[in-house]
């Protein structure tokens, strides 16, 4: 979740508005590992790699974490006899939703990323702080090796604001564009602004 966990009262409010029984699995990033690796969802990096919050450029996807979380999602979906399973999140949570949907597309009926982002960035160094061309190369790798798997998810929705200064709208647009080339069920909705809490 962006800036900390979501509160139970907010989840209950969403369930009332949906008029359906909804089960939420709200994961947090793992604690640092014994060898000093830090996590942002399924992205892992060292403290040095995350200098200036650039772990998403300098780090790597951590497949054991994504596998463990996917296993838990599948277990709970079976236990609750879920009709639909969605991965959705805001900002860093949107990053996580894209990671989960890309890692195990067969487990999800929909992936929703609100103000999310991917590994790497197309943004220039002056705007993102990410060294270029490394940021672009990592982003291209993420498109080719992760986002391409979203073709097997029935519905993928990205919601983003062009004025967002924290998560790149240009990156989100490219993630969606790749999705459109692979499948017809990806959509990016652009809003003039998104509120940050």
Automatic annotation (TrEMBL):
Biological source species: Symbiodinium natans
Gene coding for it: rluC
Record-annotated AB hydrolase-1 domain positions: 75-149
Domain of life assignment: Eukaryota
Signal peptide (residue range): none
UniProt name for this protein: RluC protein
Residues spanning the membrane: none
One Pfam family cited in the UniProt record for this chain: Abhydrolase_1
